[in-house]
């Protein structure tokens, strides 16, 4: 699929498709329109009908059809069967969308491709298509167009920190909808932190009785002196039924949920409930202010590994994801230096220092995950002391870690703070913005991000770059509306970074389409930051 996309306000799809051919005329959905689904496409057809029905009030019937539909007035979803000797098989996430005055046809090799075709189709309809009740006196027209589309990267992600502030399940589901709307497919769910543990583990009930709650929370910025606290208990957790609901909801939208269980650092909330897993045996307290703790899991204590393997066993039962994220970032070594058990482990395992002890820790966890058919992914600190043999690296401290890992033959997801930390401010005028952790990451800088560091990768290593993702750390996100303010429209720009071709990339063109897109986000009740750009 080659060729530049000429997009106008009439066809304002985000992320920008690979190829768009505008045509004159339009198709109108009416009370007699049906959705015809070929074998295997029924679930996607029902999904489309369920979006269209409430707002249009049209009883769109879904019917199965064994061959391609050419009949007038209808929408058809067809799975194209490719064979092994097909010279140019369709990518599993690719689709074509053809809108003529006569009918609408979406074709793909998989249900996932059809789903992305549906997302593009919905963006061709008036924004009111997303309303949950019937819109009066509306006409549901779609401009005629031919689209061929396929994503640039396999990992198109968004991360959410439910640890620093607990995020209600309903909001997580809303974010998953917004991810699907932007053709993102990897939801990295940060579930454990020094400030709160958020996932029910049946074997360890104190994780939800104790670790999920903190006594109070810091008011204002972490740098403030003196520090002031709000005196209010904060917390919450997702039951295993909640988790299954989220995972199923995401799967229906072709999104994989990658859980993150932090280790060896960012774990003081666990130690508050199970102090025997720390080097000093405590007492510990679920952290009430930001920044990480010196207190981490004891790497010399076998009980730590028993605990983590039991936790991960339940995690793997809940999350079918190939990848399990084990954190690995920001683990201070002070306690290990003083701990007789950790020092004994260093000696017995012939390790050079505490960095190698961290590497020992991560390698042991990787073996456990691999034995269970899963793959380990961790922040780039897992490179220190030697990378586990099959690990995938998530590069956040710039891109060097990711580049090194890819050059060593490991898979990489780029998440550099410089371009993808959506908790950073959106302008340098920090006093005009709500309190944030700092930094300045305006929309244009997110849009400018290029995840493929070709000039630094050894030839032939590019395929190790799985993609990139946006980070939503929640220290300074007290509620869901605030998360939306920080995420949008920057996540919209990032969706284009990971989906759209490099060829034809233009911030001006993006802004032109964003105008229409923001009207959709209005209907979807997204509290995005208003643009201060003037074209
Ligand atoms: C991180 O921001 N500590 C991954
Ligand atoms: Zn120790």
Automatic annotation (TrEMBL):
Q: For this UniProt record, give its keywords in alphabetical order, as a comma-separated list.
A: Glycosidase, Hydrolase
Domain Beta-hexosaminidase bacterial type N-terminal: residue ranges: 11-149
Q: Which InterPro entries match?
A: Beta_hexosaminidase_sua/sub, GH, Glyco_hydro_20_cat, Hex-like_dom2, HEX_bac_N
CDD domains the UniProt entry points to: GH20_chitobiase-like
Residues spanning the signal sequence: none
Please list the reactions this protein catalyses.
Answer: Hydrolysis of terminal non-reducing N-acetyl-D-hexosamine residues in N-acetyl-beta-D-hexosaminides
* Residue span, Glycoside hydrolase family 20 catalytic domain: 153-501
The enzyme's main class, written as a single word, is hydrolase
Q: Where is the active site?
A: 330 (proton donor)
One cellular component (GO) term of this entry: membrane
The record's annotation in Pfam families points to: Glyco_hydro_20 (PF00728), Glyco_hydro_20b (PF02838)
In alphabetical order, the GO MF annotations are: beta-N-acetylhexosaminidase activity
* Family matches, as SUPFAM superfamilies: (Trans)glycosidases, beta-N-acetylhexosaminidase-like domain
Q: Name one GO biological process term.
A: glycosaminoglycan metabolic process
Family in the record: Belongs to the glycosyl hydrolase 20 family.
Record-given protein name: Beta-hexosaminidase
Give the organism, scientific name.
Seminavis robusta
